[in-house]
Amino acid sequence: MIDIPPRPASLLRSTFLLAWLACASAPAWGQEAPATAQESTPVPTDVIPEELPFETRVKDPVFSALVGLVSSNSYGTLSREQLARNLERRNLKSKLPYQEVQSVTRARGTDDRTATVTVSFDGDLKLPVPYSLLGYHPGSFLASQDCVFREWIIGDLTLDHPEKVKGEWTHRPIHLKRVHLYGLDRGKISIDFDGWLDTMLGGTLDDTDVVGLILFEYEGVWTGMATGYSKKGSGRSGAFNFEEDEIMFPGPEEMKTIGRTLRKKIESWLPGWPVWSERMGSGDSGGAR
Predict the structure, then answer these.
(1) Residue spans of beta strands (DSSP E) within the chain
(2) pTM
(3) Quick check: is 15 in a domain?
(4) In a domain? residue 287
(5) Domains: count for the chain
(6) Quick one: pLDDT band at residue 17, thresholds 50, 70, 90?
(7) pLDDT tens figures, 221-242
(8) Does the N-terminal or the C-terminal CB of the chain have fewer CB atoms within 10 Å?
(9) Is position 211 within any domain?
(10) Other C-beta atoms lying within 10 Å of the C-beta of residue 137
(11) Range of the domain at 182
(12) How would you classify residue 81: left for phi > 0, otherwise alpha for psi between -120 and 50, otherwise beta?
């Protein structure tokens, strides 16, 4: 297990909504990261099945299809048209503006432990956040036309979670299952919160640049997370409950530990990204979020 020093709490982020379009493969926890998927030769024979494998425990049908592809370890290209056909056949509606996504491609790495996931939009994207926060759609989701993620499968994982009990700091284990990490290798994803909301909530809600996405099961619930840094360099992470189809706000303390720890792991396996290198020195000022 990983020992995490206690940090002050803060509210979470709602960042990954459209960017959470990925699938999976990777090294055991604690190993050196393998060569990047860009350095390996993708296997070209994989095809996403026409009938998408929906995950029944995920409420929104687009997220359900994407998590289902993760669960079935599928490779290939999922087009906007194929996704639309599947939703139409099942008479399903989604909150997500998936019509803006041209395709999502997942290519194998030759070591069978990494993959490259490329999300292509019609152009550089700026859309309202499609989920509410405090009863209000809180700002805009921004993304480059092409966003390329490096992907790892971690599997089951136990983390140390610091908490204060009767005035004393202690640690208890957090058990995660089916952990997938996605490091943003090329492109940019960010959330721009409306000024009045940012001002009202102060340091607990800041505009954020995303450096990675995380998918896992916690206590039997599929959970998605985006993690990154505020404009001032403070660590930020936000979680989404796929079963309830809602942002986890305010965020449980366990989610802050998960976001902080796994962001550091993504950074250690994908070093040199410009935003990381500029902000690593400031750490998680104001608390791990």
Answers:
(1) 76-79, 101-108, 114-121, 125-128, 139-143, 146-165, 168-186, 189-193, 208-218, 221-230, 235-241, 246-247
(2) 0.76
(3) no
(4) no
(5) 1
(6) very low
(7) 999 999 888 877 888 888 999 9
(8) N
(9) yes
(10) 12
(11) 37-282
(12) alpha
